[in-house]
User: Fold this.
Amino acid sequence: MKFLDFFAGIGGFRLGMEMAGHECVGHCEIDKFAQASYTAMHNPKESEWFTDDITTVDPSELPEADCYCGGFPCQSFSVAGKRGGFEDTRGTLFFEIMRLAKVRKPKYLSLENVKGLLSHDGGRTFGTILSTLGECGYDVEWQVLNSKDFGVPQNRERVFIIGHFRGASSPKVFPIIQKESVSIASPTITTRYPFAWREGIYIIEDGEKWRDLTPKECFRLQGFPDEYFERAKAVNSDSQLYKQAGNSVTVNVIYEIAKRL
Assistant:
């Protein structure tokens, strides 16, 4: 199955989808540092479609794809942010991917966001998302999944949304039930630590002392192989690598979803 990787970051969606046998035909990422890591990590073909700004995309220019993937920016829905929702410009980017999907009608939409999206504004924000998907022709299912249930020691809950275009129905993806959880390396980090503002990244105990995770450990907690981290490290600073790991989806979770598409 061919897919487009929107709000691509460092390609957590891409790697998980490719591991399940799907083919990436294009991606979109506005952050120049994340794009540098993405290119180094995944080595996209020169012929692959790319843009850095989804708001400027004409639907007619998109390549044919069966699935649109995207962890649309979550800061406006996160408990760590101001929770501005759709009043925040970043929150409205959900409507950009729907603008494209309404015209091109891919069979699937595979979306991700923070768990707080479900409760934001008393549930009205999520209700708007569901109604928008429905108006664009998609039947919707969703589930909150925790990274610790998929082979990485990170307590990271995210809501995953799958849209099925009506008339191109397929078996449901959810629920995904994991019977065993990985032991957590540590509690969630707090504001005492330099990258505590980014949800889902941890510290680990070193003897009787606490130490910050290294950038490589952060990438590991998101399911990226070390070789992918080394490629990103060659083109970015540690501060950018921390940010990129925190913004990424967990590859292991995407892989489990992708196998069921």
Notes: Strands lie at 2-6, 23-28, 49-51, 67-70, 108-114, 138-146, 157-165, 204-206, 209-211. The longest strand covers residues 138-146. Residues 186-202 have pLDDT under 50 and may be disordered. The CA atoms of residues 49 and 62 lie 7 Å apart.
